[in-house]
Amino acid sequence: MFALCLGAVAQPPHHPPPAPLSKPAEDAQLYRNPTFALRYRIPYGWVDRTKEMQDGNDAAKGEVLLAVFERPPQAAGDTVNSAVVIASEKASPGLKKPEDYLGTLTETATAQGFKPDGDPSEVEIDSQRLVRADFSKGLNDKLTMHQTTLVLLSKGQIVSFTFIAGSHEEVDQALEGLNFTTKVAPARR
C-alpha cells in the first residue's frame, strides 16, 4: 500500500492537452469581396443596411454589394448622413472602359439633384485604375452633400463605389477604407 502512494506522488502532475488553435475571429468592420478582389474597412460605429437595400434587387439590373451609413438612414440629424455604397451591374456590350460609364453615372446623379463638381479624373488605388466623378447638392443654407463615385470595369461588370459625406475631407476619409488585393498565383510543382 505504501508503494502505491509513493507511485502516485512521484508522477508528474497531469496537464490537460493544449486547446486546439481556433481560427481568428472574422473582422466585422472589414467587408471582403473576393470576386472583385476588394476590401472596405467600415468606419467603427457605422450601420450596415446592405440586406435592406438588396431587397427587391433585380439581378439583371445590378446588385448592392455593401451599403453602410454613419447612422441609420431613418435617424434624423443635423448633418449629412455619410454613406458608402458598393454596387455592381452587368456592363453593356459597348462598354469597354470605365470612362464609358460616366454618361450614365452623371445622368443618374443629376436626376437626384446633384451637380458635377469638376471634371472626372483617373485614380489609382493599390495598382487598380478607377475613374472618379465628384458631385454636390445643396440640402439647405448650411448643408451640402458631397458624392464621389469611383468606377471599375471588372469581369464584365461595372463596379461603382459611391461615397457620400458633408465635405470633401469626409469623402476622402471614407475613401481611405477601400483597398484592392492581388491574388497570389499558386506555386508550381
Write the layout of secondary structure elements.
Elements: H1 2-10, E1 30-33, E2 38-41, E3 47-48, H2 50-54, E4 63-69, E5 83-90, H3 102-111, E6 115-116, E7 121-125, E8 128-138, E9 144-154, E10 157-165, H4 168-175, E11 178-180
Antiparallel strand pairs: 1-2, 2-11, 3-4, 4-5, 5-10, 6-8, 7-8, 8-9, 9-10
Structure description:
The chain starts with a helix and ends in a 9-residue tail after the last strand. With about 190 residues, it is an alpha+beta fold. It contains 4 helices and 11 strands, in the order αβββαββαβββββαβ. The chain is globular. A hairpin with a 5-residue loop joins strand 8 and strand 9. The strands form 2 sheets. Strands 3, 4, 5, 6, 7, 8, 9 and 10 form an 8-stranded antiparallel beta sheet that branches. A 3-stranded antiparallel beta sheet has the order 1-2-11, with no helix packed on it.
